[in-house]
Amino acid sequence: MENIQKKFKNKKILITGHTGFKGAWLSQILLNWGACITGISLKPTTSPNLFNPLKIKNKINNYFTDIRDFKKIKEIVKKEKPEIVFHLAAQPIVRESYDRPLYTFETNIIGTANILEAIKETNTVRSAVIITTDKVYKNNESGRPFKEGDKLGGDDPYSASKAAAEIVIDSYIKSFFNPTDYNKKHKTLIASARAGNVIGGGDWSDDRLVPDLIKGIFHNKQIIIRNPDAVRPWQHVLEPLYGYLLLATKLQTGKKDFSGAWNFGPNNQSFLTVEEFTKLALRILNKGVYVIKKDLDSKHESKLLKLNSNKAKKQLNWQQELNINKTLQLTFEWYKNFYNKEDIIDVTNRQIESFFTK
To answer: Which candidate, 305, 310, 318, 331, places its Cα nearest to that of 240?
Structure first.
């Protein structure tokens, strides 16, 4: 694993969606590495959440601002003058996108365009990593892992909104941040990053498997799985975050070939059905039972989804560090410590340090 910690020391970094699950982990990593962070996000949407116990609000330039408000976004970017941007703010739940399609499209498409436009108009950002999802691909359930150049699409509003965001990103790259014009017409390199089914401590979102398991076990609620046969690429949150950080360093140092789209998916051994994952998790926790209530409503979700991450492995030297058993152990160890009222900042930092000192 490449040691990239020093490359972020004293760097001015903007993280959108910093109150969310992945955003809070990324904020904590970069705080540990001595970065100067600005965060733009809505207030945490769940209680409990990861953002509050890590006390991130008091350690950064914090803005509770809607990503759809371009005027405020531009004002913040102009004021804080970030050098590096990680855009994670989104409506991230597939099933919620059926209930709030317009909000999902506005947040995920217009929100992304707002960030890119603010970057274009303020002229301080040198690298930006825009986070989308593994669900941006037109999925015919063939089982073939998707490559970055494959056709984009999406049946549900969430997937469609993220695929559309990728088109917006590509348009901004070609129109305003073209690598061929780097150091001539602009000094900014942009990339998009695609990952999915990320797990780890601190996620309490609705309609996600790990939070459902945690609520069932620690709150004595029934554990219900809707799509037991759906195959997902499970990976610990630190895995794709390492990829995003690696990518940002390449862009920051003017490596033009790293502009564009990147997949960060786990190895084949980490592809499990929802039921296989649940059984393994309950075995690690040594308690809990589940029931299957198959999803009979119209909220379609993909049954099979795999990413081909060869590009990241070959060009970024990124690879999965944790197998599925270690991924689950770290995840549920974090939750056990949380509910045992351990020092969760210390627990989180230990996991971060262990991962990045491999």
So the answer is: 318
